[in-house]
Amino acid sequence: MDESISAYPDQRDFPFLDATSRLSPHLHFGELSVKECWMLIWQQIEQCDPKAKQKIPDAMWAYLRQLVWREFCHYLLFHFPGIDQEPFNKGFEKFEWQDNKHLLKNWQQGQTGYPLVDAGMRQLWHTGWMHNRVRMVCASFLTKHLLIHWMEGARWFWDTLVDADLANNSCGWQWVAGSGADAAPYFRIFNPILQSRKFDASGDYIREWIPELKNLDARHIHAPWEADAGVLKKAGIEIGKTYPHIIIEHAAARQRALDAYTRLRSKQ
Q: What are the tens digits of pLDDT across the range 204-213?
């Protein structure tokens, strides 16, 4: 079995590792088919030592599940062709989205003050691609921290991603926002600081895309505003000048989102 596939379940969530397939653009443009990918993986299973097959399905299914999710999104778009423009869960038509062009621009330009979010948005702008775990964090930040409509994020991803796919892009955004089929629960709000510490503990991914933070140690790089003045000065950082202040405080944003979702549910 290919080592990259065997390591996929354990490594795919870490953005500083090259552990994802990078097949999405090729699938989108028809250079590969899902069926072809599926069969190639099963051929590898058949070639493995029978004694090792007990462990193989765990790694393989983690990989294959992503293909299944991709096809599920296409199924939804085929049967519900309006999901790129309207919520799958009609109750979300009454959600209190905020129209804030300034905060939207901060998010688009990777200037939110949250390093993991900013690193992802800058990676997207410079390369046309973003790691999947970071996509979820960035999408959650826009829709739940800032309460900006998921369609604004979907439009931005559509314009910037080389693997932009109408079905997967629309369903992915609705999943994070809580309005989609089998969506993430409305109360699931990614904490960008904890996500950063868990999946980029050393800060390597952040340093790659936010060079102004490259001299900050791993302890402080996930929330630089919490570092004392001496640490920031030594790293050559001045919050508000060389790197932005956070545009919204996490705890307050989380509570505001929960309150908005509670009001939405009371209307249903």
A: 999 999 999 9
Which tens digit of pLDDT belongs to each residue from 150-201? 999 999 999 999 999 999 999 999 999 999 997 767 788 999 999 999 999 9
Q: Rounded to 5 degrees, what are φ and ψ at 146?
A: -100, -10
DSSP string, the chain: --HHHHTHHHHTT-TTS--S---HHHHHTTSS-HHHHHHHHHHHHHHS-GGGTTTHHHHHHHHHHHHHHHHHHHHHHHH-TTTTTS-SSGGGGG---B--HHHHHHHHTT-SS-HHHHHHHHHHHHHS---HHHHHHHHHIIIIIS-B-HHHHHHHHHHH-TT--HHHHHHHHHHHHT-STTPPPTT----HHHHHHHHSTT-HHHHHH-GGGTTS-TTTTTSGGGS-HHHHHHTT--BTTTBPPPSS-HHHHHHHHHHHHHHHHHH-
**pTM, rounded to two decimals:** 0.91
Domains detected in the chain: 3-79 (1.25.40.80), 82-268 (1.10.579.10)
